[in-house]
Amino acid sequence: MHKREPPSGEESSRSNSPSLYPERPAKRTRLSFSNGWPESNDETIKVHIIQAKLDASTISELFFLIERQRAEQLAASSSLKRMFELRNDPLEADVIVTAVRMRKRLERHVSWDLAQQKALVLPQWLRNSVKQGYPAPCADYAALRELHGETEENCPDEECGTSLPCASTPQSRATSAIVGPLQAPVPPNLKYTAHYSCARACPLVCINQDLIEELEVIRRSRELEGLDRNALSYERGIAAIKSYPKRVTPETFHEVTTLPYLGEKLCFKVNEFIKTGTIPEAREIATSERYRALAAITTVYGIGPATARTLYDKGVRTIEHLESYYDVSSDGDASNLDTFDAVTPNGRPIPQQDPPDLPIKVALALRKDFEIKIPRAEVEEMHDVVMRELFAIQPGCKSMIVGGYRRGKLESNDVDIVICPPKAEDIDEVKGLCAKLVKCLHDKALVTNVMHLSGFHTHDPFRLRNFDSLEKALTVFVLPPDGKRKRVHRRLDLIFALPESYWTAIIGWTGSKMFQRDLRLWAKVEKGMKFDSSGLNRRYDSKLFYPKSEKDVFDILGLDWVDPTLRNADA
Ligand code: UTP
Ligand code: MG
């Protein structure tokens, strides 16, 4: 069912073989549509939310989660997910989401008799379930200790054995402790106690994902405040917990404290989480005006934490404020734009304006599109379109979809493709291929904007100058119209790598960020080597290595193979 062996160095124009992942049964794909909205069916998971003990922002967050998932199902006709639907009447629900943890208090909202017939879970169950696209094991999120058994029994993930990989069965827990949908089994040689995250197995969604989400709020706030060292400590702690295969409980707490990078402060927070199900500091941050404003402002492509803080100091609190600040209409219609790169989505040339402001203006107008995640089928469709165009310019290129897609994400924020031109005697023969492809895609109105374009340079092992063996284009892409639905603007990163840096580029751009960071650190500290996307060399004599496969890179670095779906060391 799962691909156990690492990919060989063999070339393929479609390296992301579907056989890597289990086939999903037809049952999971049955969605019917009426009046533009998917109708509920047997597969729809009906959710009732008890609002008591939830603050207003959490209530709206949970409602929004469900509504957004329904909207995205419609937009993408996603076939990989189960749909969640709200029910006002708890009697009609499969799952009751509640923060109430005491029987007496619960009985003010639901009779005990009814509660015993449902799965009663904490709000994090909904967050994790929507994120992964099918119900997480309810027992792990049981709201009431007394109803743990009933919650497990009534959980709507009952058919795990015959369909999606599922962590609710003891067998699957024992073998992988994985809650994520698309991933390889954890090989026994990858120990969760390993110091470097590139030597551990990190699933996309782990068994302590609710704890991870809490820690991520604190990490993100440190990053937004420019406290990078502190943010990195949280990032490392998160990566360590991500690979820990047991649920954090009073019983496992002692072992958790022995994990790499789990210092006193982090352990204190884990302990708070074990006792209360939340981390007070994370809750406080998440509801603060400053955090909400900085987080919202940085969702706009091109605005980093430092700019966001400056904007905040100028009074910007919301996207709407930002739109007034940059004088952009809030209709989110990207076709009204004056783009800095000279074309609208329909290919009409338009005038250039003041460059420093324009990228943010473009990003602001495109933000609604960028917020819509890209389902795997669309990622593959984009890859096919790009490679068809490339073939017409330069036959014989090989390629791989990397980034979150390759790590098993059901939905990505952007599409990352690494492309390798055929071997050439002279670098000049393949120089500029990236720019040529982008121009061709632009001429066909497939690429609407180019945020960054850089070219090949000769490999410079000393890195004295800013040379690169990669050509890169960071673009905005729209699929050709298909007559059925409105096409969404997508971010597309194209990375051209010369044959000698193809496999390092694939590892670098597959990520995750933390996995890559630790790979570089491992190479430097443990092996006296320099690794990054553009190549691999030995530090003391600058000897260059030419890996023939991804596995070859791991071998040269003296590391055990880690399947891409187990490289999710970030939250
Ligand atoms: P992304 O930012 O695309 O993230 O970077 P992602 O993991 O694919 O997830 P999405 O897109 O948000 O769904 C992919 C990987 O590429 C590397 C990073 O290691 C990252 O993990 N990367 C990204 C670079 O090496 N350089 C860059 O400039 C950007
Ligand atoms: Mg990506």
Please give a structural write-up.
With 571 residues, the protein is an alpha/beta fold. Among the domains are: 18-179, BRCT domain (Rossmann fold), CATH 3.40.50; 289-325; 370-566, 2-Layer Sandwich (Beta Polymerase, domain 2). Helix content is 37%, strand content 12%. The chain is built from 21 helices and 15 strands. The protein has a five-stranded mixed β-sheet, with helices on both faces. Bound molecules: uridine 5'-triphosphate and magnesium ion. Magnesium ion is lined by residues 403-404, 412-414, 416. It comes from Pluteus cervinus. This is Nucleotidyltransferase.
Keywords:
571 residues; alpha/beta; Rossmann fold; Beta Polymerase, domain 2; five-stranded mixed sheet; four-stranded parallel sheet; 21 helices; 12% strand; globular; disordered N terminus; binds uridine 5'-triphosphate; binds magnesium ion
**H/I helix tally:** 21
Low-confidence stretches: 1-39, 158-181, 334-358, 463-467
Order of strands in the sheet with most strands: 8-10-13-12-11
Radius of gyration, in angstroms, nearest whole number: 24 Å
CATH architecture of the domain at 370-566: 2-Layer Sandwich
Query: Percent helix among the residues?
Result: 25-40%
Q: What amount of the residues lies in strands?
A: 5-15%
Number of strands: 15
Given the C-alpha coordinates, what overall shape results?
Answer: globular
Protein name: Nucleotidyltransferase
Organism: Pluteus cervinus
